[in-house]
Design a protein that fits this description.
The protein is of the alpha/beta class. Helix content is 40%, strand content 16%.
Length: 377
């Protein structure tokens, strides 16, 4: 598969170096061909053969009984919450996770659930003793009933750190007496797979359900897949219908997902390693520039130099000295030079490597970063 500037050009790139997210990646030529020739049916009637094949492939990769194709990672998490959690139930979740911060409080608005956030460690893990301590006493009528524990893998706000299978095993053992299920918000699960050199099946074997995005590092244009037991997927399918997520000839989109998850050279799982290398190189080079500092918050202590060793997947998170006002000027100065990064919570800046970003783009980004720092000093 082509990569770097050539891949971006063939995928319809604009010439900008867009590092705002891996969601901006364009589908590969192989995906476009598969979409054009996809066999389709009506997925609401459950007879779209390409969707069925994608759901079966995803379930097999993650070692679960069944899968469900949904429009987005947000929808995947929400239908999972609706399938697991009764109205008034409570969800234990990472405090800086996607569900509490980036899904418009849908757990409350739609599912009628509450949250009990647990603060993460710098490696993205919730301390297991804190998770256990957060479980409510179901016999007390004053308390919400703890109904689900969510793990985000990779954990975005700590440099998109991968969460290990050893942690998942320990968490499952701690929760076993309670019977509380685990859901993995695995938007970038395959980045964790590649970074840890393990199987996706191994990372989610101790969870009752998981979702992963096809439209981030895997480079498809749209969609996520939820996996779990058949009865869970049946409930999730009903929840998807409630949300208006029943789709018709959606095999056109599912075809791109099958390419992404394929074992051949056109698959996009193994190539995630290239994104990780590019992100580490970017972090290493800009860490040496003046006024680039650690992102602070939970990712790395405030005020230190940016530590490139924190970059294990495709995220680079940092700050510029001078506060929010300079951050705005810096991002504007970068954009003038054809490079896009994004403002991130807690005064941070995020750059994400993805399909279409290669050595040349990283070199240009490093040069543009240095120039933008000088301009805004």
């Amino acid at each position: 598969m082509g990569y770097g500037a050539d891949a971006a050009k063939r995928a319809g790139g604009s010439g900008r170096i867009d590092l705002r997210s891996d969601t901006v990646s364009h589908p590969t030529p192989e995906m476009r061909r598969a979409m054009a020739s996809a066999e389709v049916g009506d997925d609401v009637f459950e007879d779209d053969p390409t969707v069925i094949e994608l759901e079966e492939r995803a379930a097999d990769l993650l070692g679960k009984e069944a899968g469900l194709f949904v429009a987005s990672g947000t929808m995947g998490n929400l239908v999972s919450v609706m399938a697991h959690v009764p109205r008034g139930g409570e969800i234990i979740t990472p405090a800086e996770g996607h569900i509490p911060n980036d899904e418009a409080a849908n757990y409350a608005v739609v599912a009628g659930a509450g949250l009990r956030p647990v603060h993460e460690l710098p490696n993205g893990e919730m301390p297991i003793d804190a998770v256990v301590d957060a479980i409510q006493d179901a016999s007390d009528p004053h308390s919400a009933i703890t109904s689900l524990v969510v793990v985000e893998n990779c954990h975005a706000h700590t440099f998109s750190r991968p969460i290990s299978s050893a942690y998942m095993k320990e968490l499952r053992a701690a929760l076993k007496p309670t019977g509380i299920p685990i859901h993995v918000d695995g938007a970038r699960l395959f980045n964790a797979v590649v970074a840890l050199n393990v199987s996706a099946r191994d990372l989610v074997k101790d969870a009752e359900s998981a979702t992963f995005c096809l439209s981030k590092g895997l480079a498809t244009p749209i969609g996520s897949v939820v996996v779990g037991k058949k009865d869970f997927i049946w409930r999730a399918r009903r929840a998807r219908k409630v949300l208006g997520g029943g789709m018709r000839q959606v095999g056109i989109l599912a075809a791109a997902g099958l390419v992404a998850l394929s074992d051949g050279p056109e698959g996009t799982i193994k190539r995630l390693a290239e994104d990780h290398v590019n992100a580490r190189r970017l972090a290493t080079e800009i860490a040496a520039l003046p006024d680039i500092v650690s992102p602070g918050h939970i990712a790395q202590p405030e005020g230190e130099r940016l530590d490139p060793s924190r970059v294990t997947t495709n995220f680079v998170i940092f700050k510029v000295t001078g506060g929010i006002a300079r951050r705005t000027r810096f991002l504007d100065a970068l954009e003038k030079r054809g490079v896009l990064m994004v403002a991130y919570p807690h005064g941070q800046i995020r750059a994400v490597a993805h399909y279409g970003i290669g050595d040349e783009e990283i070199s240009k980004t490093i040069a543009a970063t240095a120039a933008a720092l000088t301009e805004t000093a």
